[in-house]
Amino acid sequence: MFDISPLGWLHTLGSLPAIPAAAYMFARHGRIVPRSTAGAVYFAAMVIGSLTVFLVAKQPVSYAIAIITLLLLFAGYGIGSLQGIGRAGVYIETICLSLTAFLLMLPTVTETLRRVPDGHPLVTDLTSPLLLGSQASLLLALLIGLTIQILYLRRQRAISLA
Question: In this structure, are residues 138 and 109 in contact, taking their beta carbons and an 8 Å threshold?
Answer without folding.
Answer: yes
